[in-house]
Write a structure and sequence with these properties.
The protein is of the alpha+beta class. It is built from 16 helices and 22 strands.
Length: 554
């Protein structure tokens, strides 16, 4: 008898009622029951998951196999038992509270066969607020590398693996690792794989966050998560020698797992726990935190890691608590360098090098360039041109002579609807039309410096908006400033001799977009518009007429 194309392994522990939807999504796969094998392992469930599995096995006896065992304390042991019974050419692991898209397995197997892939990562999305990193799924990719792609940020085992690869290297899940046991398996599979592919044009996997937050990852305490992360990093380091490739892999663990141990809840932990966390993090920093990783880490995380490494537990707690209450601290400008004034800066008792506090061109959460708050941009009419008065508040001290403001017109960047700024790469040219820096003064409502700049904008070029360029400490930042929705000359002329038309519609973000434009005599527009304005009672029918005329004129 021909073996199935794919075996789906489901580790189950108390996931009703999500389990039913998971199993339904498996038996309904477009790949067909004759090409599918489902092995579900009940890890001592007490909520009715076991009987539900048996019901599906009775309904689909040729497809669904159920194994029952005593509770092992984590998903690793049941995943290994299912893997030992698998017979498919490929194996896929699914969480018993998650579900698959109807065509997921058929598409994944076909993509693997087409490209000779040992691993195929299907697009995954979060449900009920569960976060799933999306950078990997920008496009289909037949051949990616673990070391120069976002793959290290997608290390769950919810992928299609060629089973011959798994058996060739004896890959299994570490059963003594309560949190993150899928990462060693996935990391080694990716290191050993001859080809890794991404299928991004179809949602294969729906990762569900349970309403009761009963997932083991959410229940684990700080020290358990630290111990598991240390094991995972050691396993990865044993597979990849020191250098840029290891840095690319381990950057994920510094960015996510270790950073999450030093968030707003850290100061409230018992003193002995905080001390143990700092000691454990310091060991990992000493082992794996290279200069390249340090310089690639944002200043907020970098300072917290540095204080933990120095054993400055109380200073670290104060830094986290202060930022939680007040946001990012002021910055110190010294020539072309900027330093974040977190607690411990140049404190001999702490002894942390300035490099940890230096802002290396990155933005800061909730801020623009180097701790800058974009307060407002006001438009004023001056003859035929506009004046853009930009108000910025830099949370800085020291020498502000390096602060300059410039302006450019042109197509608005896609980020124009998002708060904040983007840092320009050093190779990208910036405009050479500086505005007048009219004032630099101490901010009235807190630490920092307020900068006022007036920039002339030709009205003909300001229909969409302008881009303000801010130089701070030798770094250039682009800040998009939209003119839509602001009192533009076009809108101010409404009601004058020259008639205008107006259109309004909700955009994809649910915002009401209103545009105006001058009308011409062509096609009797003025007459129709006059009738529409003179008869508000028939506004609905006239709006339909205006809409059809607008389409005709376009």
């Amino acid at each position: 008898m021909r073996p199935p194309d794919v075996t789906v392994v489901v580790a189950v522990y108390n996931t009703m009622p999500y389990l039913t939807e998971c199993l339904n999504s498996l038996v309904a796969q477009s790949i067909g029951l004759d090409r599918l094998e489902v092995i579900a392992v009940d890890d001592g469930s007490t909520d009715g998951s076991g009987p539900e599995l048996d019901r599906f096995a009775a309904t689909y006896p040729d497809t669904v196999t159920v194994l029952h065992q005593a509770n092992s304390g984590g998903p690793a042991a049941p995943s290994n038992r299912g893997l030992e019974r698998a017979t498919g050419r490929f194996v896929f692991f699914v969480g018993s509270d998650d579900r698959l898209g109807d065509q997921a397995l058929e598409r994944l197997v076909a993509y693997a066969d087409e490209h000779g892939s040992d691993i195929v990562v299907g697009r995954a999305v979060g449900v009920n607020g569960r976060y799933v990193h999306q950078k990997l799924y920008e496009r289909n990719a037949p051949d990616i590398s673990l070391y120069d792609s976002p793959l290290p940020f997608t290390l769950a085992n919810t992928k299609l693996f060629r089973r011959s690869l798994v058996e060739e290297y004896g890959l299994r899940f570490p059963e003594d690792l309560p949190v993150g046991s899928d990462q060693p398996f996935t990391i080694e599979a990716c290191v050993r794989a001859r080809r890794i592919s991404v299928l991004a044009d179809y949602i294969c996997y729906y990762a569900v966050k349970r309403g009761d937050a009963s997932n083991i990852t959410y229940r684990a305490d700080h020290l358990s998560r630290l111990r598991c992360t240390a094991r995972i990093m050691a396993h990865a380091a044993g597979l990849v020698e020191a250098g840029p490739r290891r840095d690319a892999l381990l950057s994920r663990h510094f960015t996510w797992e270790l950073s999450k141990l030093l968030l707003a809840d850290f100061p409230a932990l018992p003193a002995v726990t905080r001390k143990s966390l700092c000691e454990g993090i310091a060991e990992l920093l000493d082992a794996y935190y290279t200069d390249a990783l340090r310089e690639g880490t944002g200043v907020r995380r970098r300072v917290r890691f540095g204080l933990a490494r120095q054993g400055a537990v109380d200073v670290l707690s104060r830094a986290i608590a202060d930022e939680t209450r007040q946001g990012a601290p002021p910055f110190l400008l010294e020539g072309d360098r900027a330093f974040a004034l977190y607690p411990g800066f140049r404190d001999r008792a702490v002894g942390l090098d300035d490099r940890y506090y230096e802002v290396l061109g990155e933005t800061v959460a909730g801020r623009l360039a180097a701790g800058t708050v974009f307060e407002s941009a006001d438009w004023e009419q001056h003859g035929e041109d506009l004046g853009l008065t930009v108000r910025l508040r830099l949370k800085v001290t020291g020498d502000t002579s390096s602060v300059t403001v410039a302006l450019a017109q042109g197509a608005m960047p896609q980020s124009a609807d998002r708060p904040g700024a983007r840092r320009l790469p050093p190779t990208q040219p910036r405009p050479s039309s500086p505005g007048d820096l009219t004032a630099t003064e101490a901010a009235q409502d807190g630490p920092g410096t307020r900068v006022l700049a007036r920039l002339p904008v030709p009205a003909a070029k300001a229909k969409k908006g302008a881009r303000v360029y801010l130089d701070v400490a030798g770094r250039t930042y682009e800040i998009p400033v939209r003119t839509e929705g602001r009192p533009m000359p076009l809108a101010r002329r409404w009601g004058e001799a020259e008639p205008h038309r107006v259109a309004a519609w909700p955009n994809s973000k649910g915002r009401l977009v209103i545009t105006t434009a001058p009308l011409t005599e062509r096609g009797g527009w003025v007459t129709r518009l006059s009738r529409a304005l003179g008869s508000l009672g028939s506004l609905g029918s006239e709006r339909k007429s205006l809409g059809s005329e607008r389409k005709r004129s376009g």
